[in-house]
Amino acid sequence: PYYVDLNQNLFLQASLHSSDPNLVLFVDTCVASPDPSDFRTLAYELIGSGCPKDPTYSSYYSPYSSVSRFAFSAFSFVNRYPSVYLQCELVVCRYLDYSSRCYQGCINRFKRNAGS
């Protein structure tokens, strides 16, 4: 476990370990929950569809395309629950494959009106 106080910055790094240098790593989704087996009922979305959902989220430069770095500030879950768990979904793509999910970046999905 990593112990933090409310509003303390947390820095995360995800690394892809591969002998192929032509791969890119992209953080698509990152959700926090006090329950390690349920990331839907009581969850806090940090990143969704590649879009930052938390106002304290910041991405950081990495000299390697196989490394993704970001940070956010500890939120109110920290004071209400003894532990908070993160679940992140990452995508691996070919370098310079502009049709891949990695190069699409943030995707805002709008819901349609069910009216006539």
Automatic annotation (TrEMBL):
Compartments reported by the entry: Secreted
Domain ZP: 1-109
Organism of this sequence: Columbina picui
Presence of the UniProt keyword Secreted in the record: yes
Domain of life, per lineage: Eukaryota
Protein name: DMBT1 protein
Keyword Disulfide bond belongs to the record: yes
GO cellular component labels: extracellular region
Alphabetical UniProt keywords: Disulfide bond, Glycoprotein, Secreted, Signal
PANTHER family in alphabetical order: CUB AND ZONA PELLUCIDA-LIKE DOMAIN-CONTAINING PROTEIN 1, ENDOGLIN/TGF-BETA RECEPTOR TYPE III
Chief subcellular location: secreted
